[in-house]
Specification:
globular, 4 strands, 329 residues, 4-stranded antiparallel beta sheet, single chain
Length: 329
């Protein structure tokens, strides 16, 4: 077994937090009643060919994994939130109330699965349009009348893309529901920061830690946007459709390199060069996180404790099997 310390991470979901270890993930959500709901499952896609674990390739696969796990966590948190819908009006007969409740639960589950899945697809489409197609169209309008060099055009395109992203994050942060998600994002970071500092996973211990973390997905996105400026500069300036398709095809490679930078920064916190590279992303986290309330931090801690317990249990079972096999041999 590797002597490397295990890395834990996660994301905010609806009224909750998802945490992941190498082999497990957990989702903790807070109901309107104050009850805390918790779910722990094995990561469903652990077995992979060895070449997909090579540097850069593992980063592209990590992005796919994060999207798949994130969707599963969102679906479950949405189903928990749907159960908090107010029951039937007072005064309705018990029979009608039971029928209404049953119909609400069945419909609510289906509608939420469709809604979250649809939101993911539409959100991905909007993201591709806003951050790939539209910046490329704007830079294309400047060619050939104003800018001739493809390197200059790609620099303009990258600047527009980053500006759109910053504006998008700032605007959605004004929405009350998104602000709550950003608070749970902060709760996730506080829990992870507490754990990585070697402190007990208690609410009082988390107060000494902030809501910024070097391995945050916000850092990852910003690094992808910056790296894409350099990567896209080497692409030919062909037809608009070809240019967009080439950019989409190159994104997994850019994401893989960004993942390696984030991974290295997490393992070498004292590197000044890496700190300088990640500084803009750390600043940007002030937009994507908010100081969480105590009950939100408790949700993050519950999710983290659950996934650590599951991971430790699996490692102990693995060690016991290895010991028995050695003794038998």
């Amino acid at each position: 077994m590797s002597g490397e310390p295990l890395m834990y991470g996660g994301q905010a979901v609806i009224r909750g937090v998802m945490m992941r270890s190498p082999r497990f993930f957990s989702v903790a959500c807070r109901r309107e009643s104050g009850e805390l709901c918790l779910r722990v499952e094995p990561v469903p896609f652990q077995a992979r060919p060895a070449f997909l674990k090579w540097p850069v390739l593992r980063g592209a696969m990590a992005l796919v994994d994060a999207l798949r796990l994130g969707l599963r966590a969102l679906l479950w948190s949405a189903s928990v939130a749907a159960e908090d819908i107010e029951p039937s009006q007072a005064g309705v007969s018990n029979r009608r109330a039971r029928e209404a409740e049953k119909a609400r639960r069945v419909a609510g589950s289906a509608v939420n699965d469709i809604a979250v899945g649809g939101a993911l697809v539409s959100g991905l489409g909007i993201g591709i349009f806003l951050f790939i197609i539209l910046p490329h169209m704007i830079s294309g309008w400047l060619h050939p009348a104003f800018i001739q060099s493809r390197f200059a055009l790609n620099a303009v395109e990258g600047a527009v893309r980053i500006s759109f992203f910053l504006l998008y994050v700032a605007l959605i942060g004004l929405m009350p529901n998104i602000r709550e998600v950003f608070q749970y994002h902060g709760a996730e970071h506080r829990a992870i920061n507490t754990f990585e500092a070697g402190r007990p996973l208690d609410l009082d211990q988390t107060r000494a830690f902030g809501v910024i973390h070097v391995r945050c997905g916000t850092n990852f996105i910003l690094i992808v946007l910056v790296l894409s400026i350099f990567a896209f500069s080497f692409l030919p300036w062909s037809s608009p459709l070809e240019r967009v398709l080439m950019r989409l095809a190159l994104l997994p490679l850019v994401a893989g390199v960004a993942y390696e930078i984030i991974r290295l920064a997490g393992r070498r916190p004292g590197s000044r060069l890496l700190a300088a590279l990640l500084a803009p992303g750390l600043w940007l986290q002030h937009l994507t996180t908010r100081p969480p309330a105590d009950d939100q931090v408790e949700v993050g801690l519950a999710a983290l404790r659950a996934v650590i317990e599951a991971e430790n249990g699996a490692r102990q079972e693995e060690a016991a099997r290895a010991s028995h096999a050695a003794a038998a041999g």
